[in-house]
């Protein structure tokens, strides 16, 4: 596996690259604007000299002062140290030319009207303009070529590039150092979180990371981490209680087996005594077998290993058959079983039958004699809701959310554990319902407890009319 770089290193490099990129953009923009500025100044100077030259030639021609024309042009154009000029007639006669005009290439004299051109001669740089000037008394316009020496500008830009390169390197180094300091300082809360997380153990799951000194950007991470600790604590507590409960549940039948066997082996007995002991041991072994089967079922459900069969299941038909099964037990205690409504879901018939059987047996266990257990089915276009309502001891609100936990004891009056029940019925029911993409919940108030199951409705039966 390729080693991963540290977050401080990444942030430092990102900060350095960001600063360098900003400086490069700013430097390129400044360089371009500077070149544009100097070019505009040069063009403005050439345009002003060209206009002054036109003015001088026009006045001289109008007054007939052609003798003073060259002196005026020399005074005008020669005053600029870096300026060279050449003025010629259409027939090639030179009206004016200074000593440096010989450097101007012949091709620029035929340049486009008003075109600004640039030329480099060895170590010198020039910028010039060519224009046609109309003079009174001349049948054809004269050609004026003005050239400005901009070598100092070129040297300035070379020096600017050199200093910009040095400044960019220095800025990159400084920004890297500042980025490292900023990253180390900004990640200090992360190191605190790491320190707390490192010290976490099964005995310190109650600890939480405080939010006060943590920056706003990390508070969501802290809240998520604290929430994870809360879930781990709850899971660990439930697992610890589950381990203790299952040990308690298994201890009783194992203790019974040991006791019965030791008593029988204390002396020689007849066959009837041995047979009676084996039957007694068989009951405890069956109870342990049922508990193990239930635990295996829950383990498979927790790991998503249970794949329910997908067939249409009529809940009203299923409840009616369960009523027939529990009818004799209900009649013995004077409990009336009622069913209202119809609904069809898609799932595993045997698994749903087991879930409903658990709810009905649980209701029969805690319903006082002479009361009623009412099952109602309501179907909408998307879901089917089945409720099992019975009278009895009200479950305390603090226990409502936990009664589906394995071996959970909400109230001694509603204790599930017994000779024939290991306390896993509601847990198995919840696993079955969740495997079918449904949900289960319970309400209990004023002596009436109701369990609700909501499952996706089968598309083949929608809006069925309730049956009395």
From TrEMBL:
GO terms for molecular function: ATP binding; phosphorelay sensor kinase activity. GO terms for cellular component: plasma membrane. Its EC number is 2.7.13.3. Residues 59-86 form a coiled coil. It catalyses: ATP + protein L-histidine = ADP + protein N-phospho-L-histidine. It is a multi-pass membrane protein. Its main location: membrane. The keyword Cell membrane applies. Residues 184-237 form the HAMP domain. InterPro entries: CusS-like_sensor, CztS_silS_copS, HAMP_dom, HATPase_C_sf, HATPase_dom, His_kinase_dom, HisK_dim/P_dom, HisK_dim/P_sf. The keyword Coiled coil applies. PROSITE patterns: HAMP, HIS_KIN. It holds the Pfam family HAMP. It is found in: Cell inner membrane. Residues 245-459 form the Histidine kinase domain. The chain crosses the membrane at residues 12-33, 162-183. It is an enzyme of class 2 (transferase). Keywords: ATP-binding, Cell inner membrane, Cell membrane, Coiled coil, Kinase, Membrane, Nucleotide-binding, Phosphoprotein, Transferase, Transmembrane, Transmembrane helix, Two-component regulatory system. NCBIfam families: cztS_silS_copS (TIGR01386). Member of a two-component regulatory system. This is Sensor protein. It comes from Pseudomonas helleri. The lineage of its organism: Bacteria, Pseudomonadati, Pseudomonadota, Gammaproteobacteria, Pseudomonadales.
